[in-house]
Design goal:
Length: 212
């Protein structure tokens, strides 16, 4: 059986317009990285993954096995993409997003093999710190709020608010969660404290924000 050896690539990446910096990232030798990708320092790209020309990855991302990152996709810093995920054109992820194994993005609401809708891709943004569980499907054009938590196998058909936990098909909100992923229990004044971080949150007008 052939044994693959990981390799390091030293590249010159224009991560900020007009400012060329040498960056180091790691890629397994089976990974396919097209010319024109922008990849931040400390990012790791694993077996059989394909980064297509024009995609942008921030610093310290981790791209698992058998992942496809399509043209014009933007991933922020510290984004974790688990195995068997395809991130299609029109999708962007803010910093610290977690994409679980085999989760599914879409970018056309009414695809037909015989109809070319290239250039008509709907956009989907995943907010900072959000978690997309394993085998989740996100119907395009619906944003995922910051620190939202999408339960495994859910089918997202509408926009998800910040700090919301949603589950099921179609996905429905069941809880509010903290930045550490814990259920928030609000008192009569609309205040909740995360049991792990002790961060304080406020619920007002069906919206949650961290206040401490």
């Amino acid at each position: 059986m052939r044994k693959f050896k990981p390799t390091l690539f030293l590249t010159s990446l224009n991560l900020i317009p007009g400012n060329m910096n040498q960056q180091i990232y790691f890629a397994h030798e089976t990974a396919l990285i097209d010319e024109g990708c922008m990849i931040g320092e400390g990012t790791k790209i694993w077996h059989f993954s394909h980064l297509m020309s024009g995609c942008q990855l921030g610093k310290n991302c981790n791209i698992g096995q058998n992942v496809v990152i399509s043209p014009e996709v933007i991933l922020g810093n510290n984004v974790k993409v688990q195995n068997n995920v395809s991130v299609y054109t029109g999708v962007s992820c803010d910093d610290d997003v977690f994409l679980g194994p085999s989760c599914v993005f879409t970018n056309v609401t009414n695809p037909r093999s015989a109809v070319n809708r290239r250039g008509q891709y709907a956009k989907t943004n995943v907010g900072k710190g959000a978690t997309i569980g394993a085998n989740v499907t996100i119907v395009c054009g619906h944003n995922i709020g910051a620190f939202a938590l999408i339960g495994a196998g859910a089918v997202v058909t509408k926009t998800v608010p910040d700090y919301a936990q949603v589950v099921g098909n179609p996905a429905r909100q069941t809880e509010w969660v903290s930045e550490f992923g814990h259920k928030l229990k609000f008192n009569g004044d609309g205040i909740a404290i995360c049991p792990e971080s002790q961060q304080k949150y406020q619920l007002e007008n069906n919206q949650v924000k961290r206040i401490e």
